[in-house]
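pls design
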């Protein structure tokens, strides 16, 4: 049986207990560090005034106003589903900036479903490059959001720690994949973090008439290499006719593979497997 989700919070790395072993695990310092590292890349409260460089960039006719850039960064930092959804009006539909909000919103919802929201503190400062978001930890854990690109006054793209996100984000088409006893798995988003090269996969898991007692998650990359989930956020089990958002972390895994989830029911001796491709819509 897989380890139950643990404590912490964040978005680029993840949270929960490591491994898919035969018994539940308790929180560890490493688990919390990974979770915080994930959140440090996408959570915080953007409040500092933009630098002169930021203002000049925002004044471009292709970008939104400086205030709109702040609203967007605040949404990424908010760990709030509604704020992320509201910020979509500031982005080009289907763009990297839009996809990153999908990632943020899904992880925020998974943290809510796991009872782990609002468990870390971040700061945001404007820099000559853009915005620096830091987790308040020792040592501080920071990422730079910069190189904002716009189109018709809306945000289209940006970099994290100097790296392009073009090949690091996949948003699925939202089609559910059926499993045994009415269960369904719906892939939502995948992101290979610029800060630490950890692949995060987000999905929704729903139970049918039979409660889900536990689930184990693995990932098979496009090269055939299989990885166990190192950390997870979401509900460990589900009651009948219930659903929850889930996020799983696979350090070093390549994006564009397939998710393998083994679901355990009270009525079955062996878990039932669902395999879902992680591909763009």
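designed seq:
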């Amino acid at each position: 049986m897989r380890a139950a989700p643990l404590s912490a919070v964040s978005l680029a790395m993840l949270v929960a207990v490591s491994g898919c072993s035969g018994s539940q695990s308790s929180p560890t310092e490493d688990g919390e560090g990974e979770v915080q590292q994930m959140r440090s890349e996408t959570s915080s409260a953007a409040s500092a005034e933009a630098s002169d460089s930021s203002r000049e960039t925002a004044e471009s006719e292709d970008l939104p106003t400086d205030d709109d850039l702040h609203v967007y960064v605040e949404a990424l930092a908010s760990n709030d589903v509604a704020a992320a959804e509201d910020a979509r009006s500031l982005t080009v539909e289907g763009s990297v900036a839009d996809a990153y909000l999908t990632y943020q919103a899904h992880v925020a919802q998974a943290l809510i479903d796991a009872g782990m929201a609002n468990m870390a503190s971040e700061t945001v400062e404007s820099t000559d490059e853009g915005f620096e978001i830091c987790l308040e930890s020792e040592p501080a854990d920071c990422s730079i959001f910069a190189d904002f690109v716009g189109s018709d006054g809306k945000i289209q793209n940006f970099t994290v720690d100097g790296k392009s996100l073009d090949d690091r984000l996949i948003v699925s088409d939202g089609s559910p994949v059926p499993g045994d006893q009415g269960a369904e798995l719906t892939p939502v988003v995948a992101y290979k973090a610029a800060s630490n090269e950890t692949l995060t996969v987000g999905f929704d898991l729903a139970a049918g008439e039979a409660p889900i007692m536990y689930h184990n998650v693995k990932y098979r990359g496009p090269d055939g290499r299989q990885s166990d989930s190192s950390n997870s956020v979401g509900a460990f089990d589900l009651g009948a006719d219930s659903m929850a958002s889930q996020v799983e972390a696979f350090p070093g895994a390549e994006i564009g593979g397939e998710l393998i989830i083994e679901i355990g029911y009270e009525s079955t001796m062996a878990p039932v497997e669902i395999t879902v491709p992680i591909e763009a819509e």
